[in-house]
Write a structure and sequence with these properties.
This protein is α+β, with helices and mostly antiparallel strands and about 400 residues long. It is built from ten helices and 21 strands. The structure holds N-oxalylglycine and zinc ion (2 copies).
């Protein structure tokens, strides 16, 4: 069916009939009693014959204006193996002059309306109890085994924070692990960014000061999805890593102070990163919601948030809401503190989990290498891995 995914269903199509009033509407009766309505135009568009989809690319070549909006099938039948066979009229069936156009739709594909049923694992928010339950994965196993890779990526989807252990303490190891998933997202800080204390740094990250909880690069239209931080050395005094689940903060705020939550989902904040070479600016609310009003992303970074776009007369009200978010992020019941060891790679959802670090002594004893990967690449990898597994 023009699809690399194998669709399955335990059910069979028992009968097909056209609606008595609307001859473009088909009713399929299934063995479990379900009556499925399908429109002729929807079916025509989905045809996977070699005139409608390129057999190698599986992409559509059918011109979606080449048939009439009043198109009605001329024939309906079922094949021996339970697929739906449809014939279309020559003059408006887009058949390019051959003897008629025929489309065949397999029952499992119809059952799923052509949408691969691979639900991604739901997110589960966490508080400080995560310290004792932090999901840890062995670097060599992840690099060698697809089952372990899938387990890790699905865990990342759920918790948004994992540690990879016993990675080689070599320059560039972090991008090797990132490439196990997909392409590395390069930014103005490079494909790999070096987190070391420097003179005249272009970011607080590359100094030895405390980095309060934040997400990286909120001044970008599209904040990096996944962040990797590989610890090459951590002998300096201080420098402990901090994490807090922004999803949990947002959920807590929603439950305890719906007005503050609402303000943080509506008032755009201008985030800005600029240096000698660039000037990135993005304006968006701290809490991004999906169409279903679920928390989709957290955009929070006190170091580079400039101003909130609310009327000055309402600024106190906004500030109170913003401060409430900050207060939650500092609640010991919601955050964890971990001292990274050389060979560990922290991997976390940069649009959900806030991260930070304590100030450290700038004696050269601390060096992390970081990289970013997008969630769309993670999800694609999950789907392909699942496709190849029983
Ligand atoms: C960063 C960062 C954390 C650390 O580079 O953005 O948050 O532990 N670093 O140094
Ligand atoms: Zn076709
Ligand atoms: Zn950071």
């Amino acid at each position: 069916m023009g699809d690399l995914f194998t669709y399955n269903t335990p059910h069979r199509i028992l009968s097909i009939r056209m609606d008595e009033d609307d001859r473009q509407l088909l009713h399929l009766e299934w063995s479990d009693g379900w009556c499925q309505d399908l429109h002729a135009l929807w079916l025509r568009e989905q045809c996977t014959c070699s005139q409608c989809r390129h057999p190698a690319s599986l992409e559509r070549i059918l011109d979606q204006t080449s048939y009439s909006l009043d198109l009605v099938p001329t024939g309906l039948s079922m094949t021996g193996d339970g697929a739906l066979l449809m014939r279309w009229p020559q003059n408006n069936g887009g058949d390019r002059g051959d003897s008629g156009h025929e489309s065949c739709f397999e029952a499992p594909w119809l059952r799923h309306l052509g949408r691969p049923p691979v639900p991604l694992p739901p997110r589960r928010s966490w508080g400080s109890e995560m310290a004792a339950q932090l999901p840890r994965f062995d670097y060599s196993t992840l690099m060698a085994q697809d089952e372990a890779l899938l387990d890790w990526l699905e865990t990342l989807r759920r918790t948004g924070l994992t540690y990879v252990e016993d990675a080689p303490i070599f320059d560039g190891t972090v991008s090797g692990l990132a490439r196990r998933i997909g392409t590395v997202r390069e930014t103005n800080f490079g494909g790999i960014f070096e987190v070391v204390a420097r003179q005249n740094s272009i970011s607080n990250a590359y100094t030895s000061v405390e980095l309060p909880l934040h997400v990286d690069l909120p001044a970008r239209e599209y904040q990096p999805g996944l962040q990797f931080l590989h610890c090459l050395s951590n002998q300096a005094t201080g420098g402990q890593s901090l994490y807090c689940d922004g999803l949990r903060i947002a959920e807590t705020l929603r439950a305890t102070d719906p007005h503050a939550f609402d303000l943080l989902t509506r008032v755009p904040i201008l985030f800005r990163y600029h240096d000698g070479q660039c000037d990135y600016q993005m304006s968006a609310p701290l809490i991004g919601l999906s169409e279903q009003a679920e928390v989709r992303e957290i955009r929070f970074n006190p170091a580079i948030m400039t101003t909130a776009a609310c009327p000055q007369a309402q600024f106190r009200e906004f500030q109170a809401a913003y401060r409430q978010f900050l207060v939650f992020s500092r609640d010991p019941a919601l955050r964890l503190e971990i001292r990274m060891q050389a060979g560990q790679i922290a991997v976390f959802d940069n649009r959900r989990v806030l991260h930070g670090r304590r100030a450290f002594a700038a004696d050269g004893g601390r060096h992390l290498q970081g990289a970013y990967v997008e969630w769309e690449d993670v999800d694609s990898r999950i789907r392909v891995l699942r496709r190849n597994m029983p």
